[in-house]
Amino acid sequence: MPTHLITGAGSGIGEAVARRLRERGDDLVLLARNAGRAKELAALHPGARTLVGDLDNPDRLSWAFGQQTMPDRLDSLLHVAGVVELGRIGELTPKAWHFQLNANLIAPAELTRLLLPQVRVAQGHVVFVNSGAGLAAHAEWAAYAASKHGLKALADSLRHEEHGSGVRVTTVYPGRTASPMQVKVHQQEGKEYDASRWIDPESVATTIVMALDLPRDAEVNDLTVRPGR
Questions:
Q1: Are 88 and 139 in contact (CB under 8 A)?
Q2: Confidence at residue 64, expressed as pLDDT on a 0 to 100 scale
Q3: d(CA 215, CA 134)
Q4: Mean pLDDT for each consecutive 10-residue tract of the chain (229 residues)?
Q5: How far apart are CA 206 and CA 220, in angstroms?
């Protein structure tokens, strides 16, 4: 059965994808930032394995993985986790930039580097959950949008580099999705949050699973998902 490594499986889109794949019998390896979070993910997704590595500190991922048993092959590597910190460019500190660039760009790049051999073995699939901010930047979204524009470049380059090895690469660009991240965004914007206005994480999960299940004669490169209400 297929094996998938998923970041961000604790809530929102990542949780929905993990649940969908587990329900159909696939094997899951869930990345957790620490041992405590690993226990929470194991309870949330019974039967899944966990792997500990902190996306906020990508320089330590290689060391962390060296202390753990890694999967022999991966049918997919799903980069779903992300962070956001809004702010005007004149006020954003280096700490805010590093926070978002590390988690949203550098960590996915390092995870991909470390796990690409296992993906190649399976001729698997790398999926990057990006954002509408990865296609257009707006006021107060500079650091987040920069990290997501960089993530698009990472995915595009990886697709060209790995096409010959049979690895597929997909980027999904969801619009605003009803998730804990969206709650935080609304708090930072000073706006009232109404989940019914935004995309259900299950809908984005449907698009991701569709890309994974596409027959081998085709590949979804880029998929934009917008609120339908």
A1: yes
A2: 97
A3: 27
A4: 96 96 97 97 97 97 97 97 94 97 98 98 98 94 97 98 97 86 81 83 96 95 88
A5: 14
Distances (CA, A) of 105 to 90, 98, 187: 22, 10, 24
Residue 43's CB is within 10 A of a number of other CB atoms, namely 9
What pLDDT was estimated at residue 229? 66
pTM summary value: 0.94
Tokens (6 digits) for 136? 């257009």
At residue 11, the pLDDT reads 92
Instruction: Tell me the two tokens of residue 173.
Output: 């660009």
Other beta carbons within 10 Å of 214: 14
* Tokens standing for residue 144: 């987040």
Tell me how far CA of residue 133 lies from CA of 144, 145, 172, 173, 201, in angstroms.
7, 5, 12, 8, 17
